[in-house]
Design goal:
alpha+beta, Umud Fragment, subunit A, 2 domains, 7-stranded antiparallel beta sheet, 16 strands, 31% helix, elongated
C-alpha cells in the first residue's frame, strides 16, 4: 500500500459524520484500516442475516429478539461514531494513504448498497416495516401503529383462516393493504344482518362488556366490540357500528381457486373483499404482520399482531 507523505489534519466532526453514513468510514478516514474493514464486514454479515433471524423465531419471542438486535445495532453505530471522533481528535494530523480520498469513500458506500440490494434478492424470509394509515383493522391495528412483518410468509403454503396478510390487490397493485384472511379457496362467504357465515354456518361471536371495550385503543362509545370465533379455532376482536350497514348484507361469495377472501376487523369501516378489493390471489400475499414496534399509544409497543 503506497502512503502519501502529505500531512493532513483530521477533523473529529467529519470522522463522526463518515461513520454515521457508514460504520467504518470514519476509521478509514483516520487510517485505522483493520478496524474499518472489521466494522464494514460486521455490518454486511450481521444486519441482513439479523433480519432473517428475526423472521425465523416464533411469534412469542420475536419482540425480545428484535429488541436485542436493535440494541446491538445502536451500540455498534454509537461505537463507530464515537471511536472515529475520539481518534481524530487525538491524532490531529496523519499522512494520507491512497484510500484517503472522497471518491474512495463514496465508492465504498455504493459497494455496500449494492451488496445489500443483492442480499435482499435471496429467497429467504426477512423483515419489513409498515404503518397503519387508517383504522380499517381496529382494534388489532389502529391508526398510528408501526409494525414489523415477515416477508415471503405465504410462499409455498396455503394461509390459515384468520391470519393477517399484507398484500397488493389486482384492483390497486401499487398500494399495500392489510386485512384478515376469512375465506379460503372453495369457501362460500356471506354476511347477513352483520353476521358472518362461512359455508352456510354462522360464525360465533361474543360481545365484550362496555368496561372491557373501553380499555381498547381508539375505542368509540358507539362501537360494538366482539370476539369472533372462526372455524378451526382462530379468534380475534372485531369492531362494528351496527349490523345494518351497507356491507352487513351481501350476496354469497364463492372463493375461486388460488384466491382468498379478506375482511377488515373494523367491519363497518373497511374496504375489503366485499367491495373494491375483491378476491385476493394467493400469489399477491407477501407479508405477515409480527409485532408493533412503534405507536402513538406507547403501551402498544411490542404487542404481537394476531
Amino acid at each position: 500500500m503506497s502512503v502519501s507523505t502529505e500531512p493532513k489534519k483530521r477533523r473529529a466532526w467529519l470522522a463522526a459524520l463518515l461513520s454515521l453514513l457508514m460504520p467504518g468510514l470514519g476509521q478509514l478516514y483516520n487510517r485505522q484500516v483493520r478496524l474499518a474493514l472489521a466494522l464494514m464486514v460486521l455490518a454486511m454479515l450481521l444486519f441482513t442475516p439479523g433480519g432473517w433471524l428475526i423472521a425465523a423465531v416464533p411469534a412469542e419471542t420475536v419482540g425480545p429478539v428484535y429488541a436485542g438486535m436493535l440494541l446491538v445495532a445502536i451500540a455498534y453505530r454509537l461505537f463507530a461514531i464515537t471511536q472515529a471522533a475520539i481518534r481524530a481528535w487525538h491524532v490531529k494530523v496523519i499522512s494520507l494513504a491512497w484510500f484517503n480520498r472522497w471518491y474512495v469513500y463514496i465508492g465504498l458506500i455504493v459497494v455496500v448498497t449494492i451488496w445489500e440490494s443483492i442480499v435482499e434478492l435471496v429467497p429467504v424470509p426477512s423483515i419489513d416495516g409498515y404503518n397503519s394509515p387508517s383504522g380499517s383493522m381496529n382494534p388489532t391495528l389502529v391508526e398510528g401503529d408501526y409494525y414489523q412483518t415477515r416477508t415471503r410468509a405465504f410462499v409455498g403454503r396455503l394461509p390459515a383462516r384468520g391470519e393477517i396478510a399484507v398484500f397488493r390487490p389486482t384492483s390497486d397493485p401499487d398500494v399495500d393493504f392489510v386485512k384478515r384472511i376469512i375465506g379460503l379457496p372453495g369457501d362460500r362467504i356471506q354476511l347477513l344482518e352483520g353476521r358472518l357465515y362461512i359455508n352456510d354456518v354462522m360464525v360465533e361471536r361474543i360481545e365484550l362488556s362496555r368496561e372491557e371495550a373501553a380499555s381498547l385503543p381508539q375505542y368509540h362509545p358507539d362501537d360494538q366490540i366482539n370476539w369472533e370465533m372462526l372455524p378451526g379455532g382462530a379468534s380475534h376482536l372485531i369492531s362494528e357500528v351496527s349490523d345494518t350497514g351497507y356491507n352487513d348484507n351481501t350476496l354469497e361469495f364463492v372463493v375461486p381457486a388460488e384466491h382468498v377472501f379478506v375482511l377488515g376487523d373494523n367491519r363497518d369501516r373497511s374496504n375489503d373483499s366485499r367491495a373494491g378489493l375483491g378476491f385476493i390471489p394467493l400469489a399477491g400475499l407477501h407479508d405477515k404482520p409480527l409485532f408493533i414496534y412503534w405507536s402513538a399509544d406507547k403501551s402498544r409497543i411490542g404487542k404481537v399482531v394476531e
